[in-house]
UniProtKB/TrEMBL annotation:
Full protein name: DUF1254 domain-containing protein
Keyword Transmembrane: no
Annotated keywords: Signal
Ranges where the DUF1214 domain occurs: 396-501
Region feature Disordered, mapped onto this chain: 440-460
Species of provenance: Rubritalea spongiae
C-alpha cells in the first residue's frame, strides 16, 4: 500500500482549514467576535444611540450623561431614605421644642393621628429623643425598670443598641453610654452594648457610627391606660453628657399627643437637600465609599455645596419622582421573595428576609436593598428584636394593603376582618389603619384609628374571635369594633403582636383576610 506523501497531507489539511475559516471582519485582519462590537445605531428605551465606529456621537453622549444622572438620582433616593427619614424625625422633634438631648417628646396620651409619623402605633407610650454626640461627647441614657422595647439607631437607621426588655438590662433598667464615632479612649463599645465599670457604676457601652442618634423608648399600657408608663419616663428617664454626670441638665418632657407636626422626608427635589444636610453633618466614614459615590454622582458630597444647574435640577426632579414611585411599588405591590406571610393572603412582612441588616442568605447574596427600601419608606426603628424569634418578648408585625381579592382597600367601601381566638400575644394585639399617602395614621373623626384588645371595649364572638369593621360609617350595633375610613381615600392596616408566642412563628395561628362587604 502506497503512503500518502507528507506534503500532500499538509496541503489537504490547509485546504480543509481554509474551507472552514471565517472571512475577516471588515476593517480587521481577523474575525472579531460580534458580542464585543457596538453597532452604529442602537435602539433603546431612551431613544436611538448613534456611534462612529464605537465612539458615541455628541447627541448620544448628552443623552447618556443625562440618563446617568437620572439613574444615580433614582438610586440616591432609594438608598438615601434611611438617612433623610431619621433626619425628618429629628426636625419634627425640634419643631415642637425638643432640640437638645435632655428634651424628650413624650406621647403621654399615646400617638394619635395628628402628627405625621411613619406607621407609628396608637398602643404604646413613645418617648423620643435625639443624641448629639458631636456637641455632647459620650452620652448617658438612664432608663427606668419595666421599660418596654427601646432602641438607639444611628443617622442611617442602623442598629446601635436595644434597651428595656429586649436589651441587655432585660427590663430591669440601667445606664447606657453611647460613644461618638471619633471617640478615642479606653472604653470598648461594640454594637449591641458591652458591660463596663466606670467610676464604680455599671454601664452598657456602645459606639455609634454617627454623631446624631435617635433614642426611641416604649412603655406599655396598664389597665388600658398610658398614665403609668408616662409617669415611669418622667420619673426615671435621664439623658446627659458623661462629662456632666455630677451636673446633669434638667430633663424636659414635651407632649406630642394631639400636635400636628411632620417627621417624614420629602418625596420631591427637596429630598436631595435633606440628604445633603445629613452628609455635611456626619463624619466621612459614616457611610461606605460605594454609597458616598452614588450620592456624589448627583452632587451630594461632604464639604461641597449642593448646587445643581437648572438642567440637572430638572433631571433630578424626574429622578425623585421615579424613585418615589418605585418605593411605593415595593411597599404596596412587593415582588420580593418572602414578602407574603402566607400563601394566597394579603398579609405581608415589612422586614423581608428576616435580617435587620437586610443581608441575603447570610450575606452571600449581598444586601437586599429593595427590602431595605420597602421597610424604611413606610416604617421606622431598626432592631434585631423586630425580626428575631423572641417568644413572649419584643413584637411582630404584619401589614395588609388589599382585600381577599387582591384589590386595594377603598375608604368608600365596607370591609370586615376576623381576628381568630387565642391570639398568640402575651402582652396585647392591635390593628391600626394608615394613610397610603403619608404612611401615617389615617386622619378621621377617630383620633386613634385602631383597635386594641387591652384598650378597646371590643365585642367578642361566641367562638372567642373578634370581627373588626372598616368603612365610612359604623354598621348598626358594631360601633365598638368599627374603624372609620374616608371616601375617596385608600387605607391599609398593620397587625401588631406584643410578646408574640409560638403559634405566630410556626403559623398555626393566622389572621383572617380583609373581606369586602357586599
Amino acid at each position: 500500500m502506497k503512503k500518502t506523501p507528507t506534503s500532500l497531507i499538509a496541503a489537504m489539511s490547509l485546504l480543509s482549514s481554509l474551507a472552514y475559516a471565517e472571512d475577516p471582519t471588515p476593517g480587521y485582519n481577523h474575525t472579531i467576535p460580534a458580542k464585543i462590537m457596538t453597532p452604529d445605531r442602537v435602539e433603546t428605551r431612551i431613544g436611538t444611540l448613534e456611534f462612529f465606529d464605537g465612539m458615541p456621537k455628541a447627541e448620544t453622549v448628552k443623552k447618556l450623561y443625562d440618563n446617568l444622572l437620572l439613574m444615580r438620582g433614582v438610586e440616591t433616593f432609594l438608598s438615601g431614605i434611611p438617612a433623610t427619614s431619621i433626619s425628618g424625625i429629628q426636625h419634627g422633634n425640634a419643631d415642637i421644642g425638643a432640640k437638645t438631648s435632655n428634651q424628650v417628646v413624650l406621647f403621654d396620651k399615646l400617638l394619635d393621628s395628628s402628627p405625621l409619623f411613619l406607621t407609628g402605633n396608637t398602643d404604646t407610650v413613645y418617648a423620643s429623643a435625639f443624641l448629639d454626640l458631636q456637641k455632647d461627647g459620650p452620652t448617658v441614657v438612664e432608663i427606668p425598670s419595666k421599660c418596654g422595647p427601646g432602641t438607639v439607631n444611628d443617622a442611617y437607621f442602623r442598629f446601635v443598641t436595644d434597651m428595656g426588655v429586649p436589651g441587655p438590662d432585660r427590663g430591669t433598667g440601667g445606664k447606657y453610654l453611647i460613644l461618638p464615632p471619633d471617640y478615642k479612649g479606653d472604653l470598648d463599645g461594640p454594637i449591641g452594648s458591652k458591660k463596663a465599670e466606670i467610676d464604680g457604676e455599671t454601664y452598657y457601652v456602645s459606639k455609634s457610627t454617627s454623631y446624631v442618634n435617635w433614642l426611641i423608648l416604649r412603655g406599655f399600657l396598664v389597665d388600658g391606660k398610658p398614665d403609668t408608663a408616662a409617669k415611669m419616663f418622667k420619673d426615671g428617664l435621664k439623658i446627659y453628657p458623661l462629662a456632666k454626670s455630677n451636673n446633669q441638665p434638667r430633663m424636659e418632657f414635651i407632649s406630642g399627643t394631639g400636635k400636628s407636626f411632620n417627621t417624614i422626608h420629602a418625596n420631591n427635589f427637596e429630598f436631595y437637600k435633606e440628604l445633603h444636610e445629613v452628609i455635611e453633618r456626619e463624619p466621612v466614614g459614616f457611610l461606605d465609599p460605594e454609597l458616598r459615590g452614588i450620592f456624589a454622582g448627583v452632587g451630594i458630597e461632604k464639604g461641597k455645596p449642593f448646587e445643581p444647574s437648572e438642567s440637572q435640577k430638572k433631571i433630578l426632579t424626574e429622578a425623585v419622582a421615579i424613585g418615589n414611585a418605585t418605593a411605593r411599588s415595593l411597599v404596596f405591590r412587593p415582588n420580593l421573595d418572602g414578602a407574603k406571610y402566607y400563601e394566597n393572603s394579603g398579609w405581608m412582612t415589612a422586614f423581608v428576609g428576616g435580617d435587620y441588616q437586610w443581608l441575603k442568605n447570610d450575606g452571600k447574596g449581598g444586601r437586599n436593598i429593595d427590602a431595605r427600601t420597602l421597610f424604611f419608606y413606610q416604617a421606622t426603628v431598626n432592631t434585631p428584636a423586630m425580626v428575631l424569634k423572641m417568644i413572649g418578648k419584643g413584637s411582630q408585625y404584619a401589614y395588609c394593603v388589599s382585600d381577599k381579592n387582591g384589590e386595594y382597600l377603598d375608604g368608600a367601601k365596607n370591609y370586615t376582618l376576623t381576628i381568630p381566638a387565642n391570639v398568640p400575644a402575651k402582652d396585647f394585639w392591635s390593628v391600626v389603619v394608615y394613610d397610603p399617602q403619608t404612611r401615617s395614621e389615617l386622619q378621621t373623626s377617630q383620633p386613634y384609628p385602631s383597635k386594641n384588645n387591652k384598650r378597646s371595649n371590643l365585642d367578642i364572638n361566641n367562638d372567642g374571635s373578634v370581627t373588626l369593621y372598616f368603612g365610612p360609617k359604623a354598621p348598626e350595633g358594631k360601633e365598638n369594633n368599627w374603624i372609620q375610613t374616608i371616601p375617596n381615600k385608600g387605607w391599609y392596616s398593620v397587625l401588631r403582636l406584643y410578646g408574640p408566642l409560638e403559634p405566630w412563628f410556626d403559623k398555626t395561628w393566622r389572621p383572617g383576610e380583609i373581606e369586602p362587604v357586599k
